[in-house]
Write a structure and sequence with these properties.
Blueprint (H helix, E strand, L loop, with lengths): L3 H5 L3 H24 L6 H23 L1
């Protein structure tokens, strides 16, 4: 779980990299769920919420500039 204060201190490029990493993880988790290999089911929700947080921050930063 990523704290919002930590995310706010990052640059747009860092946030975009983190967003890409989380989307890849989300894809892998969906693949694991489909094949029945998923161990950490709670991670799906955490990743989804982190993606939403970062997307919101990127949108806020674009609107501010």
């Amino acid at each position: 779980m990523t704290k919002i204060a930590d995310l706010r201190s990052q640059t747009n490029d860092q946030l975009a990299d983190e967003l890409l990493k989380l989307k890849k993880e989300q894809f892998n988790l969906r693949f694991q769920a489909a094949t029945g290999q998923m161990e950490k089911t709670h991670r799906v929700g955490e990743v989804r919420k982190d993606i939403a947080r970062i997307s919101t921050l990127l949108r806020e930063k674009r609107a501010a500039s």
